[in-house]
Specification:
This protein folds into 3 domains: 103 residues, ATPase, nucleotide binding domain (Nucleotidyltransferase, domain 5); 91 residues; 112 residues, no CATH class. Helix content is 47%, strand content 16%. The protein has 12 helices and 9 strands. Helix 2 links the parallel strand 4 and strand 5. Helix 4 crosses helix 8 and helix 8 runs antiparallel to helix 10.
């Protein structure tokens, strides 16, 4: 009789360590294969029964997920930050693979979402644009750092302009520093056109997705922010409620309490002075968090968001909390518009919530 098998995979650049348990928790296979599609598929085809596979979210996770999901019953790409069991006991490739199989068999793993093939190209183009944007900003920061380190003020963006470079180079008396600055200018000249091309390619690809057209009707969600949202969320039906989207985007407030109960007259009652700390969820998607926070910051100066923000402040809410509340509002609007597949209509909104 065929039975369930639970496979844990500890994936590395060259090799993958595999441990397989049966439904009774007995180790039935432990092996090492090359981290290659053909070798991994051969291993899967050699096993009988219903196969459940897990491996952690790593550099190879997206590729490996596409390779094996058609050959097994269940594939779980798990969050390594939640796999606390791996830090207990012996640490090694075989031990890690076995512990992953045990967690999979016990149903204790939380999967990491991997999107549909329809958005794969947009995801890669967004990553490319973000990488080039970060590299460009880093290079510009390094240019200014050379001058700041010598007590030379660099207000504005004139230090980056080609027409002013000779003047700025002339302010450096050290030959080594001048050479360094010339190299950074050359790097910046290469990065800027690449970033523009990446941005254009990302926007062209994003227009192929109907969701971008609906999201663009929401104030402060321009073409770049809409492309980032669609590439990250993939489908709005991942989130049943707006609260789940807030948590994923780092906009949810989490509370950590201790000593919640005390004894009164022989009974345990909830303490009125429980020790508690509150803050935003740090385990979040930082791209979405930045997108919604920046939209709220920009929208604080224009309608229809300005009036909503002012009313929150009039009620005594601090400015930073009012901005967070507005960011949540924009995220909730985006989720609703996307799910209902309709354009934004401010008349339908309840601005009192």
């Amino acid at each position: 009789m065929k039975c369930d098998k639970y496979m844990g995979m500890d994936v590395h650049r060259a090799t993958t360590v595999v441990a397989v348990l049966d439904s009774d928790g007995k180790l039935v296979l432990e092996t090492v294969v090359a981290t290659e599609a053909a070798a991994i598929i051969r291993l899967l085809m050699s096993l009988s029964g219903t196969i459940h596979v897990t491996f952690e979210e790593t550099t190879q996770a997206a590729w490996l997920y596409e390779v094996i999901r058609a050959h097994v019953t269940e594939t779980i790409v798990c969050d390594p930050r939640r796999n606390k069991l791996l830090s207990e006991g012996s640490k090694g490739d075989k031990a890690d693979a076995l512990k992953l199989a045990e967690l999979l068999r016990a149903g204790l793993l939380r999967s990491v979402y991997h999107g549909h093939a329809e958005t794969l190209r947009l995801k890669e183009l967004v990553r490319g644009y973000e990488t080039l944007s970060v590299d460009t900003t880093r290079t510009m920061t390094r240019i200014k750092a050379i001058f700041r380190g010598r007590g030379i003020r660099t207000p504005g963006r004139g230090v980056y302009q080609e027409t002013q470079r000779e003047e700025w180079l002339g302010r450096l008396s050290e030959p080594g520093a001048r050479q360094r600055l010339e190299w950074l200018y050359e790097e910046l000249d290469h990065l800027r056109p690449l970033r523009r091309r990446a941005k254009q390619a990302m926007l062209v690809e994003s227009r192929k997705h109907q969701a971008v057209e609906w999201l663009r009707t929401i104030p402060q969600l321009g073409p770049i922010r809409c492309a980032l949202i669609v590439a990250t969320v993939d489908t709005p039906h991942r989130f049943r409620t707006k609260h789940q989207l807030w948590s994923y985007s780092g906009l949810a407030v989490v509370t950590h309490t201790s000593a919640e109960y005390e004894m009164r007259e022989g009974r345990a009652v909830r303490s009125r002075k429980a020790i508690a700390t509150r803050g935003l969820n740090p385990n979040c998607n930082h791209r979405l968090k930045e997108t919604f926070i920046s939209a709220a910051t920009g929208g604080s100066r224009t309608e229809p968001y300005r009036g909503y923000l002012e009313r929150l402040k009039e009620k005594g809410m601090r400015a930073e909390m009012a901005r967070l509340t507005l960011a949540r509002k924009i995220a909730a609007i985006a989720l609703t518009v996307w799910k209902k597949r309709e354009v934004f209509d401010p008349k339908k909104l309840n601005w009192t919530t």
